[in-house]
Amino acid sequence: MKKINSILKSLFVCLFAVVIVGANASFVSFATEIQEPATQAEQDSEASAEEKPTPAEGSLVAIVEVESYTIDGGMLEAGKDVTVNFNLHNTSNSSSATSIIMTMSSASGMIYPVYGTDNQIYVGTIGAGETKTVSVPVTVSSFFRVDSVDITCQFDYMTLNNKMANSSTIVIPASGGTTLGVKSIDLSSHAIVNGKSLLSFRYANNSEVNITDAKLVIEGNVSNSSKSIKLDTVYAGKSYNKDFYVTFVQDGDQEIKVTLEYTDIDGKEVSTSLGTYRILVSKETEEEVVPTGNRMLSLAGKAVAAIVLAGAACLTFIYIKKH
After folding, report:
1. I need a labelling partner for 64 at 20 to 30 A (CA). Which of 92, 174, 189, 193 fits?
2. What is the CATH number of the domain that holds 262?
3. Residues 108, 188: one domain?
4. DSSP string covering 46-111, please?
């Protein structure tokens, strides 16, 4: 009986050992299964990173060009000074253009820098993909009789430690490139308070669409009716020369600003400054007012003069009668 119990104890110990070993193997297997998905995720992530396309690089070298322009005043007129605003653009998306110098010229000779200014302008730096506006005051030749004028802008600059040079040529219509072109505007230099002052306006519709909402907006000490002067329908391809009147409500040296507003063929609202003007406005005709004291002296003087003249006439009559 003791021998049987010993055998059973041995079997029980062996069975317990087998169970322990099996449990450990199960835990190790479970831990391995948990680890494998993490490793797979890392591999997938690395593969995804390798397969992800890198962004395409743009031009490494900076290229400076005239992207667009505007004209203060909106028109070119013979002998007139205007300001051309050049919008310069760096077409590279990775490199800056530094130490930019712009040299302006015109093959026709119809436009040149204002007296006392240079045709070379220091622009400075334009970052990658950026735009910078440079304003240049110019004079339109007094011999300007054509429909447009050419301007060439030469650019010299540094990019990626190398010297670069390129140029852009633009052609500016006499109207300044706008749908509604202004040829001239003239205002009387002198006016009278509450009186009508002449404003002559020459303009043209350069498009193929009628403009129906054009108006002149005047800022300054003018009457309400003068603040907004509506133009009649401006028919496509037609030119006009019209006179309007502005009424000033204050005397003295008055300054007014004139702006042309309308909706162009693209449905865009356009506001073009036509300049600022100084007008000398005189007071209305006034009756001469003489102070009371001076008025009494004036009347007394006139009375004395009348008495003297009457006495002289009597003496002359008596003298003639006696002789």
Report:
1. 174
2. 2.60.40.10
3. no
4. HHHHHHSPPPPP--SS--EEEEEEEEETS---TT-EEEEEEEEEE--SS--EEEEEEEEE-TT-SE
pLDDT over 60 (residue 279): yes
Q: What is the pTM of this model?
A: 0.45
- The last residue of a domain, from among 111, 143, 173: 173
Predicted confidence (pLDDT) per residue in 94-118, tens digit: 999 999 999 999 988 899 999 999 9
Question: Is residue 222, in this structure, part of any structural domain at all?
Answer: yes
Domain containing 27: what range? 1-45
Same domain assignment for residues 28 and 69: no
Question: What pLDDT does 169 receive?
Answer: 82
- Residue among 49, 60, 127 at smallest CA distance from 90: 127
- The total number of residues written for the chain in this structure: 323
Contact assessment for residue 97 and residue 159, using Cβ atoms and an 8 Å cutoff: yes
